[in-house]
Amino acid sequence: MTYFPEEVVEHIFDFLGSHRDRNAVSTVCKAWYGVERLSRRSVFVGNCYAVRPERVVARFPGVRSLSVKGKPHFADFNLVPDDWGGFALPWIEAFARGGLGLEELRLKRMVVSDESLELLARSFPSFKVLVLISCEGFSTDGLAAIATHCRVLRELDLQENEVEDCGPRWLSCFPDSCTSLVSLNFACLKGEVNAAALERLVARCPNIRTLRLNRAVSVDSLSKILARAPHLVDLGTGSFTIDHHAEAYHRLINNFTKCKSLKSLSGFWDASPRCLPAVYPICGNLTGLNLSYAPAIQGADLIKLIRLCLKLQRLWVLDCIGDKGLAVVASTCKELQELRVFPSDVCGVGTAAVTEEGLVAISSGCPKLNSLLYFCHQMTNAALVTVAKNCPHFTRFRLCILDPGKPDPVTNQPLDEGFGAIVQSCKDLRRLSLSGLLTDQVFLYIGMYAECLEMLSIAFAGDSDKGMVYVLNGCKNLRKLEIRDSPFGDAALLEDVGKYETMRSLWMSSCYVTLKGCKTLAAKMPRLNVEVINERDESDEMEENPSDLRRVEKMYVYRTVAGPRNDAPDFVWML
Amino acid sequence: MEGGGSYGSDLDNLKATELRLGLPGTDEPKKLPSMLPRSSKWAILEATKRSSSEIKSVEKDQKPAAKAQIVGWPPIRSYRKNSYQAMKMEAETTGMYVKVSMDGAPYLRKIDLKVYKGYKELREALEDMFKCFSLGEISRMDESNVYEYAITYEDKDGDWMLVGDVPWEMFLSSCKRMRIMKGSEAKGLGSIP
């Protein structure tokens, strides 16, 4: 291939869609490395501390789209202290200084300040897409900067961020000349919104297809918006409370009926069951439905709604749907691919949560199911074996039995066999979360069968170091391993230190790993960052030189070419 | 071997001072294959790993405590957890206000159903509230031993139901508004509110 002119090679590389493929061709030879790096348009950084931003800028001067992930996954569950790190500013600064023509930025679990948003908005005149997922550190003032300065903004997508509310003015900062919006999601904002400004914005953006409103948007406003934007494909409804006798309600139904393209619905924050009939006209077209923030919709109302959703592919609900409700889903939604059932404390008295029965029903009714997140009160081995047989196409299987370490209630056995059946049957399984009572045996199965597994989450499971070793030895494609409250110690950690360079990261908290083990690992593997996170433990005295034999509370290990990071707070020890 | 009694009581004392996991006053838990170390973190897990038959008796008290102590469990994103908590708090603090109309009264009233513990209290409160209209007592029966007024409510499906048939909690979750119906219209609804 060396006698092909560079333009031809570059053209061939254009057909390589995935990051992995592009990464692979860049290692073939110097010439290819050169062509690849100059023609690369999109970079994905799975761990913001794995590489320095300046290095990315230097290597890929033509990059237009950047995705970066920050905190470890368990930060979602408050296991990582607030100031741990994951700052967006260094990335934005590096790209600005490098003079790159950044157009798209996607950040997950990072700390994004208003200052960084301001810098972002001002530095890249062609900036089009901003997606922030589970981020924090910014306020609506930062959004105002984006709205003001990003003249060709196409997407502003805020998913489940903690955003400080500084008032509704940000929305009015979109200039009258801004007509390019295709996607606007501000559902996670807690504050008030200027309804008139919102309606005008929607009216002047003819290409808008995704619109997710926050709780403050009234049904009246929603009605007007639907009237202006009947081509919407994805809608987050806002509060959705309305007196169902009122004229506004009838207007709403009419406007919904006009939305022939609507495929995805979410929101329903304060929806009462009486309002649901407004969406009946479009239910038959829905492929996505998220009712997981609507605790008031339960029982018969919920079932009535679901019976109309014949084309549903993605469903997110609360567990007050009950096993009976899931049976209805199973008989109605034959195209279902993704199901998430979240636990709810807010459901009223007497509502059934879900058990293994609901899951079995789903598995037999929905053979296309490939992605599951299921919070339940109990699970049996028999049920899991059945599910494994019915649905061999799982790529993501996350089961959370709410009582940690709970056995199969029928046989009193651990759930090893059940999960074993899942990994054996689902050859394409990439992500797995375990729960319930589990011994080392389940890890033996995982090591043996889960060949494609990339991410494994373990909590309150296993008996000994052997469990962790089975996984490290067996899962060739493992990228992320996160473990909490399980009896794995130094022997397991140090069994195969080279393995961690083939993975993105390892998290262990409340396990048996000691400081000595961490230090040993750090010494053996200079290209890993070994972080020990110590929050002040009230029972211990503050020690200057803690004993190496003391167990570490939290440890985070990741491969990196950037060396130890310089922004670590006091409570994080870089070994 | 002398003083077998005292020897026996020594053993008893020893048992009393024995350190073991599990709630005080319960039998020693069955040892499952996994031997967990003795540290406070594992006490919760050990307790929840006991066989289900033993769990049943202590679970009711123990479960909320165990759940409260485990950080980051269940694994739900903080954003979602905070949303649920906010919703729950709202539901608890805002009260459950429903309109109450009485046939013949010039205006309606609103009451917070959450304030009452049961049907008796509710009836008494309504009596109190509407006696100013001099329309007669809600609890008064006429000649044929039928109540003059019937307390009814509109449920989630829009039907008018007689108050008192279902358990109080179920009533709370399905009542949208109430109407105190005059006897002549209420005859069909039965006699015991």
UniProtKB/TrEMBL annotation, chain A:
User: Which gene is annotated as encoding this protein in its UniProt record?
Assistant: LOC105035262
* Subunit and partners: Part of a SCF (SKP1-cullin-F-box) protein ligase complex. May interact with auxin and auxin-responsive proteins.
Q: What SUPFAM superfamilies does the database record attribute to this sequence? A: F-box domain (SSF81383), RNI-like (SSF52047)
* Pathway field: Protein modification; protein ubiquitination
Annotated protein name in UniProt: transport inhibitor response 1-like protein Os04g0395600
UniProt keyword annotation of ATP-binding present: no
Q: Name one GO molecular function term.
A: auxin binding
GO CC aspect terms:
nucleus; SCF ubiquitin ligase complex
Organism lineage reads as:
Eukaryota, Viridiplantae, Streptophyta, Embryophyta, Tracheophyta
What compartments host this protein? Nucleus
Query: Which CDD domains does the protein's record reference?
Result: F-box_AtTIR1-like
Respond yes or no to whether keyword Nucleus is given for this record.
yes
Looking up InterPro entries in the UniProt record yields:
COI1_F-box, F-box-like_dom_sf, Leu-rich_rpt_Cys-con_subtyp, LRR_dom_sf, Transp_inhibit
Q: Which domain of life is it from?
A: Eukaryota
Q: Where is the COI1 F-box domain?
A: 3-41
Query: GO:BP terms for this protein?
Result: auxin-activated signaling pathway; pollen maturation; SCF-dependent proteasomal ubiquitin-dependent protein catabolic process
Which residues are in the Transport inhibitor response domain?
61-107
Keywords assigned: Auxin signaling pathway, Nucleus, Ubl conjugation pathway
From TrEMBL, chain B:
Quote the InterPro entries the UniProt record gives: AUX/IAA_dom, AUX_IAA, PB1-like
UniProtKB keywords: Auxin signaling pathway, Nucleus, Repressor, Transcription, Transcription regulation
Lineage top rank: taxon: Eukaryota
Location in or out of the cell = Nucleus
Q: What are the BP-aspect GO terms?
A: auxin-activated signaling pathway; regulation of DNA-templated transcription
Family named by the database record: Belongs to the Aux/IAA family.
How does the annotation summarize its subunit structure?
Homodimers and heterodimers.
Function according to Swiss-Prot or TrEMBL = Aux/IAA proteins are short-lived transcriptional factors that function as repressors of early auxin response genes at low auxin concentrations.
Query: What name goes with this protein?
Result: Auxin-responsive protein
Its gene? LOC105042181
